[in-house]
Design brief:
Elements lengths: L5 H6 L8 E5 L3 H12 L3 E6 L5 H7 L3 E4 L5 H7 L3 E6 L4 H9 L1 E9 L11 H5 L4 E4 L5 H14 L10 H12 L1
Parallel strand pairs: 1-2, 1-4, 2-3, 4-5, 5-6
Helix pairs in contact: 4-5
Length: about 180
């Protein structure tokens, strides 16, 4: 099964409408994942760092917001009954390990963000409750077409920030120096 994008990953998961689905990281791919999950009929939890992201999460369609800077995301998800699916667009090994702790029975963590850090989950976190971690970097044109069609039908739209090329180049040069 290929999972290149939040749409395909969420759609091909074992989660069913009404299930608790959490999106870890609501920037880049995450802001699309929140919208897709909402339009697919899931109870959506957006997870970000900072109280300032709560309003964005709600505007994107999240039912709940967890500020991972203030609370343990694993404990918060367990308090909601445990997630059937956590879609991680973040690239932080510690957050991924916390997300595994927030999965419900037979829940899955779908890792879309790459990290060089170890995940830090123990085998017992996976074994007790039959939890799984899945990830992939591949996709195909048919999935792209399905994603675009669903987006048009439901109104899912990317938020795009326009930046001056000089701003990007100058910032990169300063960081390198």
């Amino acid at each position: 099964m290929r999972r290149a994008h939040p749409f395909e990953g969420i759609g091909s998961s074992s989660a069913k409408a009404g299930d608790l689905v959490a999106i870890l990281g609501i920037g880049g791919l995450g802001h699309l994942a929140v919208q897709y999950a909402r339009h697919m009929g899931f109870e959506v939890v957006a997870i970000g760092r900072g109280k300032d992201k709560a309003e964005l999460a709600k505007n994107l369609g999240a039912h709940h917001y967890i500020d991972s800077a203030e609370a343990s995301l694993g404990e918060a998800l367990r308090a909601m009954g445990g997630a059937t699916l956590v879609v991680s667009t973040a690239s932080d090994g510690k957050s991924l390990a916390e997300a595994v702790k927030g999965l419900g029975p037979c829940g899955s963590l779908l890792a879309l963000g790459a990290t060089v850090e170890p995940l830090g989950s123990s085998a017992s976190d996976l074994l007790f409750g039959s939890k799984s971690i899945v990830g992939s970097l591949t996709g195909d044109p048919a999935t792209g077409d399905a994603t675009l069609k669903f987006s048009v039908l439901t109104g899912v739209a990317a938020m795009i920030e326009t930046m001056l090329a000089c701003r990007i180049f100058c910032t990169s040069v300063i960081e390198i120096a």
